[in-house]
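User: Look at the shape:
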Amino acid sequence: MAKNPTTHPQIYDYLRRYQEDPTSRVFAPLAEAYRKSGLIDEAIEIAREGLAIHPGFIGGRVALARALFDKKNYQEVADELAPVVRDVPDNLVAQRLIAESYLMLGRVAEALSAYKMLLYFSPSDPETAKLVQELEEQAYERGTLVLRSDPPRQAEPELPAFDVKPAGQAIDDSVENRRSAWIARIEGLQHLLLKVERYRVRNSSIRQHS
């Protein structure tokens, strides 16, 4: 190691507990302490060791995803957190991490869905609300969402019965079609939000009876 982790009191405490019981879940806060100290590779290593024993531990997956994000391994972050946000959609840390990772990957529609879910559970967050608004405005103005990594749009085949128009004009003419497609996507998201609401009500009921 380039640095000595035991020089940090919190890391030393977590590391001692982890060495005493390598099967404990203390690997998650240990990985996070490593990450905050700039020891990203060590954080990833410890998190993966712990998840090999506790694969379903959400705290461990989030700790690993944070370290992977710091390494700019955005695809790995998305892979780690996709099952987390599916099963526990109100995990705000996971939702924000996966949303930001999707944006960095150019997967804008998925990023917008994640940000909308984040805003659903945290409606008073002005930063997220502003970002969602900006992304939606782009969608309605341009008919789609495009960032630097989005794949190029396939050219539509020419129809002999119609005049060939300049590209800009052709795009303008198809705005209504694209807007209809976007509305359909939003309706799908609304359906997902209804499922999430049922999830919250069910969990609330379980907690009340436990």
In short: The chain is about 70% helix and 0% strand. The radius of gyration is 22 Å. Confidence is low (pLDDT under 50) at residues 145-153, 155-175.
